[in-house]
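Pasting two entries for a bug report.
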Amino acid sequence: MWFPAPRPLTPRLLSRLPDRHRTPRRTAWSDANRGGALLHSFLEGPCFDATGALLVVDIPNGRVFRVGPREWDLVAEYDGWPNGLAAGSAGSLLLADHRHGLLSLDPATGSIAPLLETVHSEGFKGLNDVAVGPEGQILFTDQGQTGLQDPSGRLWRLWPDGRVEKLIGNGPSPNGIALDRAGTHAYVAMTRSCEVWRFALRQEPFVGKAQCFVRLPGGTMGPDGLALDARDRLFVANPGHGMVWGTDPHGRPVFAIDCTSFGRLPTNLCFGPDGTTLLITESESGSILAVDIPQQ
């Protein structure tokens, strides 16, 4: 290690997918991504809506839940693979769907509508995550089955006026995406190369000097979801090791969150309304974990 060992933090159970929503079954998604395993769920995309409610997605079963301490409300269930979730405009939510592209969800009614299904009639590889930047720009990763064998994953940007721009076209499995608090820089997890890339966001569709901000140890899976706190400290879900890592704004590792007492698949992250509680979807156990992040 080039740096001192990061400070260990211990997660706690916030909520667990109720048993009535757990029916293990095999799906086309689990065939392609989990070796044909029987899955009760695969949770990702934690996000707070305009009312302050926490929502998560269940990819293989096409479900979106509103999370309560004990009961979870089924907001939507449809023929898709919802992956990323972010707060949109006018109380709506944005869904990055692996099968159907970029969708809009009304959390009050559960209605889903397409926002962007193709670019110039060409379909996506398979969307993964979504984030909203300054001036209403929507950034979303197009991961598909890309990896070291095929580093052709993409990062797209959709503007409110309908313009679509490809910012990255050579990603080895672009996955989670997050922006710094100023909205000037983007971070993208490249799962199969075990890296997080950082680059400046410009008005024009140009990315220059993309930098490897964090390089994680190799293993069975690299980084997945990302989140930044109010101090621009980056948190990285690393399901290959059952860990969440935290770095300072310069990429120096400062926190290590071991989730393996619950499961080995911490997939996605977000901060609670207080700005100091990190929430983690742990997909092996079908749980939401919480960690209090030190402010000093």
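Entry 2 (this is the one that rendered wrong in the viewer):
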Amino acid sequence: MDLLQDHLTRARASGGVFARTVAEPPWGLRLSGTIQLALHAVVQGRAWLWLDDPQDALELAPGEMALVRGGLDHHIAHEPGAACLEPEEFKARHADAHTPGEHSDRRQAQRSTVFLCGAYQFSGDVGEGLLGALPQVLPLSAAVGDPLHDVIGVVSRELAAAEPGQQTVLDRLLDVLLVLAIRTSFRTSGSAPRWFRASADPRLGAALQAMHDDATHPWTVPELAALSGLSRAAFARSFQRALGQAPMQYLTDWRMTLARDYLRAGQPTLADVAERTGYGSPYAFAAAFRRHHGQPPGVWRRQQEEQTALSVAGTGTGGDGVHFV
């Protein structure tokens, strides 16, 4: 499993909420900042997307898409500054809209916008790390020959008529769009995670892959250097330059990231967490965790449980806060 796939899997970035919308002007939709990552792709017509200021709105044409990271509410509408409805009200107002070509005249077809929306919730520190590496809004224009262009085209054709199993097909295509979009962002952005850039270096990729594939192994610098085909000193220098930290520190940080996610997910015992993160005993794990975080893992887990309970009580729901059209 490559490093990006490993991060997506551990972040449980799957099961995204998918919606296809057909709307005739005037229309506008407001989406909550509680959606950790939203994906919008225009199939037909035009749409404008903005956060706080409509003057900064991004225009999306057919074949174009945007990723929007959570934290701030965002809006998508037929024109900048249009009145935007909450999802349930928007859905009710446009419930009778048809895909252009289905029970609509030519004028309606020309006025209608068809756009796709996906919403993802990531979990744990691995998910936070992925989201933190993305800009608040990432526009993506899929040129001919770009896989993004091809997938959006497949989605458009799939939506042309109702077919058996269509929702499953659309859900899988949304997953593909998400991965392609994140990959494109990381390849073109100066803020891409260091592990992503370093994984493309054949001298370092093998060592990084080994640590991620088996964090329980008692890795040493000589072992990792041998995997990279470098001397110990050359490997250590290259790793420090690319990742900003020594190999063993990177391994410890990765193990602690995994440990926090295991603890947050309610892993039954410290012994289980210790075994899954490469520590010989719960005592060794607890000592390492205390050195890293300044408190024992049991105390940290209870604090996380209390914070989660307060958050749920504050929102009045035990769900993930995603309500999509």
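Dev reply: Rendering is fixed now. As a check, the viewer should reflect this: The radius of gyration is 23 Å.
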